[in-house]
Design a protein that fits this description.
The structure holds 2 protein chains of 2 kinds. Chain A is of the alpha/beta class. Chain A is built from 19 helices and 25 strands. Chain A is elongated and about 135 Å long. Chain B has a 5-stranded parallel β-sheet, sandwiched between helices. The longest helix of chain B is centred in the last third of the chain and has 18 residues. The chains are: A alpha/beta, B alpha/beta. Chains A and B meet through α15 and α16 of A and α1 and α5 of B.
Chain lengths: 659, 150
């Protein structure tokens, strides 16, 4: 594959020198002396690498870099800034704008080409793995727009409408980057990012926060949580894409293993000394070895630079004005990202005490300034090699650890699935047994009862002349007992069916069901005069059949227990309680003693004698089971002689009246 | 065309047979009731095979009262074979059984039952049900041409 390099420098010598080196490495070269020429060349063809001088006759290299990063067709090119400017400030500005590398002049052409190749290789590695992007946004419109734009750029897109769903997707799909909306219905964007950062397997995934224009607060919280950058939602989609590309580019620099790929790869050394004469000599000597040298004049500059530039080794003068060598060393060794960079202290021979102090501050080695540069080069080589081995070891250890974690996780998942399968099997078997049991109860237990009742009746009728009053009473009690057992069996079957029935929740009009139940009761019991008050349009998200059974029991109870009341009244309404919207069936009947309130809902628990009010004691247990299956709660209030009220809730998406 | 008013009762439990006959008697239904005790015999009777070989197929009952839990061939199988045979395809079948399990209801109606009645425990109610059944199927309902005739 032919790769194109665009070399932008006003010096013909530099252009020719670099062109020769790149062509030797089989790059196709395009040479430009001005920013205008560079723009034309970029518009004309694809560009993989740009070598860009910071000072151009018709403009600023950093402005051109900005344009490159904002132009989708070339935004992913590797950019190496080239400059004789020794100013650390320029270097930092360049790197912040999105330069991949900053090489000081005089440069080493071999280093520039090697670095360009390395950057391209990283691009390919990340391009292969970076295809999947997760978009978390509750607006379907924005999500789809972003999905289309990302697809067009060749990204794979995963989409989620809530943070919870997004986290699940992130865990299972391991996207290369996450775009998350700040404001989401469940957990917000900042929380999503915080959870990602807390997850050992996901914490390296770059996260971009999508924010509304004035949402400073959520920006700050997301920054705290570890977001890599923000994108304003009203910005054009290509700006979002450019930002995403930049973040992915940066994250590919962190690919572990790549950094330590080769001992012979291009190396960068930060040299800190207040004497520019010594710095120049030192830099020249090191460049002969093929190192790129970044000169810094004091500790502050060095620390500022390390924040944006990774280096392979630091040479630090012990005695400097302003921040001292020890102080600089201590600060570097305290900073998480850079503390592992080998640091060699440069000292004057006679200053042994200070040198020991420097080592105490954390320097990895020391060397006398008056030593031959050969010794210094050897020390630098040794330090870089040591760092390389350490990195390699750490990488291997991490890989082993990761493999072990993955294996453990896979094993746990497998075991969980197995355990689940066993449980599901057992549950299904138990369910089948229960079905078979209740089927045979309903068939076989009722037949003998029919015979008991039927033949007792036959006896009463056929042998009436042979039975006295006492005998007839006995037989009537036999019949009553048989019928009662029939009712108990029916109610028990209903209770067990309710536990097993499939739920189909839908918009249900409770008021209509209650009216139908009352109509049935009136038809069965035409002599009763009961005042019934049912609130209109009580709508709930519920299973219509089960709700009907519940209301049959509740209203049926109210009907029954008002049998002896003076002016019987039954009411069905919705009220507000501490539990939220609550339905209540209230009557002015026999009531009950609150002391036994919680017994009411247990099967076969009755607070009245059968002679007073007939019943099996299953009704409220059935109601409770139905309400529980809807995720609701049921409770009772009452007073002997003053009536009862049974309250229940039906939590759901749509529990409320029709507007 | 005169209606023969024959009822075929398919019921294995002798208690239930006696109670059913008594219930019909109590509700003043004096039609001829033929009792068979299992599914095999029901099919033999309907198709004049086995123990009922040689019976004239011209005498078709007007309604079949069919229990579901039967020895040898169960009620649903009897129903399935009746509906598969041209001679009994249109014969009214009332499933008369102990349970009202939803699965039995669904299967019965899917196989072409005309009605489904659960035998009540209380004999008084059973008499009421028998009375209404007799009234409906033997008096009000118009049978399909060719069934229920001598």
């Amino acid at each position: 594959m032919s790769r194109n390099v665009l070399i932008v420098d006003d010096s013909l010598t530099v252009r020719m020198d670099l062109a020769e080196a790149f062509e030797a490495a089989e790059f196709a070269t395009v040479l430009c002396g001005t920013a205008a020429e560079a723009r034309a060349a970029m518009a004309a063809g694809s560009v993989d690498v740009v070598v860009l001088d910071i000072l151009l006759p018709d403009g600023d290299g950093i402005d051109l870099l900005n344009e490159i990063r904002a132009t989708p067709a070339v935004s992913n090119a590797a950019v190496l800034m080239l400059s004789s400017e020794a100013q650390v400030g320029d270097r930092i500005r360049g790197l912040r704008t999105g330069a991949d590398e900053y090489v000081g002049k005089p440069y080493d052409a071999g280093y520039v080409v090697a670095r360009a190749q390395q950057l391209l290789k990283l691009r390919r590695v990340s391009a292969a793995a970076a295809t999947k992007v997760l978009v978390i946004d509750d607006s379907a419109t924005y999500r789809e727009a972003l999905r289309a734009a990302l697809r067009e750029k060749g990204y794979g897109v995963l989409a989620a409408s809530t943070g919870e769903e997004g986290l699940r997707l992130a865990a299972s799909e391991r996207p290369a980057a996450i775009l998350v909306d700040g404001v989401l219905p469940g957990i917000d964007g900042a929380t999503v990012i915080r959870r990602i950062r807390l997850d050992a397997a996901l914490r390296d995934i770059p996260c971009l926060l999508l924010t509304a224009a004035q949402d400073r607060d959520s920006e700050l919280r997301a920054l705290d949580a570890g977001a890599d950058t923000f994108v304003r939602k009203e910005e054009r989609l290509d700006a979002v894409l450019a930002r995403l590309a930049a973040v992915l580019r940066r994250s590919s620099m962190r690919v572990p293993g790549e950094e330590t790929a080769s001992l012979l790869g291009p190396k960068k050394i930060l040299a800190v000394d207040d004497s520019s004469t010594y710095l120049d000599v030192l830099a020249d000597a090191l460049r002969e070895e093929g190192y790129d040298v970044i000169p810094a004049r004091d500790g502050e500059q060095a620390i500022e630079l390390l924040a944006v530039q990774t280096v392979d080794c630091i040479l630090l003068d012990l005695v400097m004005p302003g921040m001292s060598g020890q102080e600089t060393c201590a600060r570097i060794k305290a900073a998480p990202g850079v503390r592992d960079i080998p640091l060699i202290m440069l000292t004057a021979l006679e200053d042994r005490a200070a040198m020991i102090e420097g080592l105490g501050a954390g320097a990895d080695d020391y060397i006398s300034k008056s030593s031959e540069f050969e010794v210094l080069k050897a020390r630098v080589r040794a330090q870089i090699r040591r760092k390389q081995f350490e990195d390699e070891n750490r990488r291997i250890r991490e890989e082993l650890l990761r493999a072990e974690i993955d294996a453990t996780a896979a094993r746990a998942t497998r075991e969980l699935a197995d355990a689940r399968a066993v449980l599901v099997d057992e549950l299904e078997r138990a369910n089948r047994e229960l079905e078979a049991f209740s089927y045979s109860v309903s068939h076989d237990l009722r037949a003998p009862l029919r015979a008991i009742d039927g033949f007792s009746q036959a006896l009463l009728e056929d042998c009436a002349d042979k039975l006295d009053a006492g005998g007839r009473r006995h037989l009537e009690r036999v019949c009553a007992a048989a019928r009662r057992m029939g009712e108990l069996i029916d109610d028990l079957l209903q209770l067990s069916r309710i536990g097993r029935a499939d739920m189909h929740r839908d918009r249900v009009n409770l008021s209509e069901i209650a009216r139908a139940v009352v109509a049935d009761l009136r038809q069965h019991d035409p002599e009763r005069e009961v005042e019934v008050d049912i609130e209109d349009n009580l709508i709930a998200d519920a299973d219509g059949r089960l709700v009907r059974v519940a209301l049959e029991n509740l209203i049926g109870n109210a009907w029954k227990f008002t049998g002896k009341a003076n002016r019987p009244r039954v009411q069905f309404a919705r009220e507000s309680t501490l539990e939220g919207p609550t339905y209540v069936v209230r009557d002015n009947g026999a009531g009950f003693d609150m002391t036994y309130g919680d017994k009411l809902f247990r099967p076969f628990q009755r607070l009245h004698s059968p002679s007073e009010f007939p019943g099996t004691g299953i009704g409220l247990a059935t109601v409770q089971r139905i309400v529980n299956r809807h995720g609701g709660r049921v409770w009772a209030e009452g007073e002997p002689g003053r009536g009862a009220a049974i309250y229940f809730t039906v939590p759901g998406l749509r529990s409320g009246g029709v507007s | 065309m005169t209606r023969n008013g024959i009822i075929l009762l398919v019921e294995d439990n002798p208690d239930d047979v006696d109670l059913t006959l008594r219930a019909f008697e109590k509700s003043k239904i004096v039609n001829e009731i033929i009792v068979v005790n299992d599914g095999r015999e029901a099919l033999d009777y309907l198709f004049a095979t086995g123990a009922h070989a040689g019976r004239s197929l011209a005498r078709v009952p007007e309604v079949v009262l069919l229990d579901l839990k039967l020895p040898k061939v169960d009620g649903l199988e009897v129903l399935r074979r009746m509906r598969a045979d041209e001679r009994t395809r249109r014969l009214p079948v009332v499933v008369l059984t102990s349970s009202n399990e939803e699965q039995d209801l669904i299967k019965s109606y899917n196989l072409g039952a005309n009605s489904f009645v659960r035998k009540p425990v209380a004999f008084g109610e059973f008499v009421g049900a028998a009375q209404q059944l007799g009234l409906y199927w033997l008096v009000i309902n118009e049978p399909a041409p060719g069934s229920g005739t001598d």
